[in-house]
Amino acid sequence: MSLAQGRPYLAIPGPSAIPDRVLAAMHRPAPNIYAGDLVEMVATLFPDLRRVALTSAHVAIYIANGHGAWEAANANMFSRGDKALVLATGRFGIGWAESARAMGVEVEVIDFGKSAPADPARLEAALRADLSHQIRAVLVTHVDTASSVKNDIAAIRAAMDAAGHPALLAVDCIASLGCDEFRMDDWGVDVMVSASQKGLMVPPGLGFVWFSDKALEAGRRADLATPYWRWEPRAFGPDFWMHFAGTAPTHHLFGLRTSLTMLLEEEGLPHVWARHDRLARAVWAAFEAWGRGGDIALNITDPAARARAVTAVRIGNGGAARLRAWCEAEAGVTLGIGLGMAAPDDPAFGDFLRVAHMGHVNAHMTLGVLAVMEAGMRALDIPHGPGGLAAATAVVAG
Ligand SMILES: *Cc1c(COP(=O)(O)O)cnc(C)c1O
Predict the structure, then answer these.
(1) Whose CA is nearest to atom 4 of ligand 1?
(2) Which of 26, 209, 353, 382 has the smallest C-beta neighbourhood within 10 Å, fewest atoms?
């Protein structure tokens, strides 16, 4: 008997759950885009977007998803034929490399596989080998949502400094911003990209690029940027329309205003990070217990290299695909597919899934997902160790 009636829960790593208050803030008639509420409200977004990234850098807002934010950053950093070094730790690192290559950038990829973070020592060696400083920027994901690896951005910066290389450090925080601790200025990040639909809890449609003074200066010679993608007018205006190169994404901006207030004023960023950390640890604890009695494993072994926004796991013999189907049909919970771990036509594709715990997520949601998964494993006779839920509840209890 299906128990899927009631409010469904989409536990995929983006789009994440949207707070009702964000949706309510968007439910309004079209605002005037020349003066009044919208124009005054948008002026408050720029300082708060800096606060959420812990930076004094500039920020540009695009009507775009994460792929658009990648291209926006590429366009402002590079000229055709410039060189980029990409540290790939999953499907999204590869994706950023592909977007730069398609735009005419010469891309070198160091691929660290799908289950480990980037090794700063290998980056340092690659930069030392670049004697004539051809590499304009190092591109890396903070959290790669496909593998759920978290890269150590401060260590990557330290490796660049140790090599004495002037390249920009550009970081994809699309999955991590508002979930995992990220400190743009302390960690020496020059360019950071994010999007609205993950930790920022707004529907997909806004892309963001933060850029330092060094990046601004370096970007003045980049010839890939066309008027729509140039970051300077988006960050500096001065006319209101210039922030958006045309009509503003009016309703998304009102939603973002509410989500930033929730994150920065009401909950506070340190608590937001601590909440994600605790919920992530509950998920890991459950999988570690289940894995002691079955072919079940977390994708990332080292807890320090695990995302707090999403967890990628392996459940052998196609168990992941069968479990996802059961959870959706029988319990109203939709889990994420495994992305980039195996090709969709490879039977191993059915061995991977991802549990999202990003954004507007609390203890009952995450414990609910875990309990539903354990029920599904029982129903489907997927071998698993005992005590997964007890381990997760112990983490939540603190
Ligand atoms: C979701 C995601 C993207 C892609 O974002 P879209 O909005 O789907 O284009 C890129 N990088 C990371 C790390 C992501 O999590």
Answers:
(1) 66
(2) 26
